[in-house]
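User: Teach me something about this protein's shape.
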Amino acid sequence: MENFFICGGNKLSGELDISTSKNAVLPILAGCILCEKQIIIHKFPKYADTKSMLDILESLGAKWYFQDESVVIDGENISKSEIPVELASKIRSSIFSLGSILSRFKKAKVSYPGGCAIGARPIDLHLKGLKSLGVKITERHGYIYCDGSNMKSGTVNLDFPSVGATENIILASVYLKGKTRIVNCAKEPEIVDLSNFLNSIGAKITGQGTSIIEIEGVQKVDGGEYTPIADRIITGTYIIATAMCGGNVQLNNVNIENVSALVSKLKNNCCKITYKGDKLILVADKKPKSIAKVETMPFPGFPTDLQPQITSMLSISKGTSVVVENMFESRFKYISELKKMGADIIVNDKTAIIKGVPQLYGATVMSNDLRGGAALVLAGLVANGYTTVCDVKHIDRGYYKMEEDLQKLGANIERIITKA
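Assistant: First, the predicted structure itself:
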């Protein structure tokens, strides 16, 4: 087991380049299934999840290799339409491959996706959307069998602006003759990035970033090169870390619009935040104050992937705060671990009431999911004494060597390996 060992109390200072977005790269990798030529993805982030997605591509017949900070993918020999269960069970994003496989082969077989245990995260919107395009779907023995022989373009009305469903339907529609419309689609930056990538290799997608996306079918896409966007959740995590610890930090490769929901919560709280171009400079010289209400919503609302981190900050803020989680029903699981460190939090269904305490105290806590694990790391950075965050494999799914990033900013944190 790999753990983080943290000695709390250091202020953060220095400069850090934000790495490429995991949530942008994963659907882009799925999009590579559409292409029979070489694609180069620059600034490729070597997270556990992105490596798992490369394994899925390889299982389908693709070849890939790293070239400096890029990955080169050759999809010419992709011939399989089934994702092995042992790979699909690792990451939820394996489901994105369904749309691409259907688009290329008009058939697919996948098992239900894995990922963090933060709620049911049903894929019914994905399947309902594909059915709207004429896909015949059979579910049995834990597998989803898809017959796309009668697929056709059309209008897909989403009951909820699901990011994954929007991405899957886009990927399934690239080769459909005519025009497909997705109504009430997600507006997240990662949706825009996937669309921009597909357009760069020959797809015809418009409306990305709005509530209606249109895909004009093409016969074939070409190879090419692409640089995905920076990770807004990593950006937000280190903004919150600085707000908690105090200090002066410059984050590079930041799109301020993608973190505006967070910045608006902190700018008049405990931080002075300025930005120029893609650089964000944050000066935190006072203790955070409570926030009356933080409510997770689809973009451009407050992201659910930053909810645990800001709850960690509010646990040491002056006053009482309320956090409402609307996206995932089990996303408060990390709070029981945070309370071991002295946090005063009451959870009732989808609402957490946080009464700020003067000090958190080091403890041994368990990382049970990606973002909850990150929240515990932030708590350890400000806690009195030593904190061990155990089993950080979940954190590694979305942060590449998080401890090295924080060390660059002056945090006292190291990765240790313990034997069973």
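Now, about its shape. The longest helix spans residues 232-245. The chain is about 30% helix and 25% strand. If you'd like, I can walk through any region in more detail.
User: That's plenty for now, thanks!
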